[in-house]
Design goal:
This protein is mainly beta and 160 residues long. The chain has helices at residues 3-6, 116-130; strands spanning 9-18, 25-31, 36-40, 47-48, 59-64, 67-72, 78-80, 83-85, 87-89, 95-98, 104-113.
Length: 160
């Protein structure tokens, strides 16, 4: 993968289950690699919601060249602003309701640029959390040859 491919924007989508009374987020799911996100009661969905009015496979959220689309595939319907929908484009911040009296899910979309340095640092942090491997040995002591030429070792006996 070239550096220019790493800098391409990534469509990141976050689904937030909203509290039924307060309409505040109680759970989040974030996706950046999936082309289809499935929501429903069945355990083979990306987002599993246990509600009697939610179908086993209720909604598909599809990645397109122009963003995301919500597609109803459930028996009890999916609603936006009180209107039943079949398929609509996702706009950042929309709230869809699964079935007429079911859970509300807010959708947020962002386009962020991949940062190769940030990804490298995150992978190194994961290695630190899960132990080191032989490909990335941890230095036990610094040698003057390991440092940039302008560096000075502190605490070493420097002959004058």
């Amino acid at each position: 993968m070239s550096i220019s491919e790493n800098l391409k924007p990534v469509n990141v989508i976050t689904l937030s289950l909203l509290h039924p009374l307060h309409k505040t987020p109680v759970q989040h799911w974030t996706f950046d690699q999936e082309s289809v996100i499935r929501v429903g009661r069945s355990s083979d969905n990306n987002v599993i919601l246990y509600s009697a009015v939610v179908s086993r496979h209720h909604v598909e959220i599809l990645r397109t060249d122009h963003g995301w689309r919500v597609k109803n595939i459930g028996t009890n319907g999916t609603y936006l602003d009180g209107k039943r929908i079949d398929e609509v484009p996702v706009e950042d911040g929309i709230i869809m309701r699964l079935a007429r009296s079911g859970p509300n899910i807010q959708i947020h979309t962002t386009r962020e640029k991949r940062d190769p340095l940030k990804e490298l640092l995150n992978s190194r942090r994961r290695e630190d959390l899960h132990g080191h491997d032989d490909l990335h040995p941890v230095p036990t002591a610094l040698d003057a040859d390991d440092l940039p030429h302008q560096a000075t070792l502190i605490g070493e006996d420097n002959p004058s």
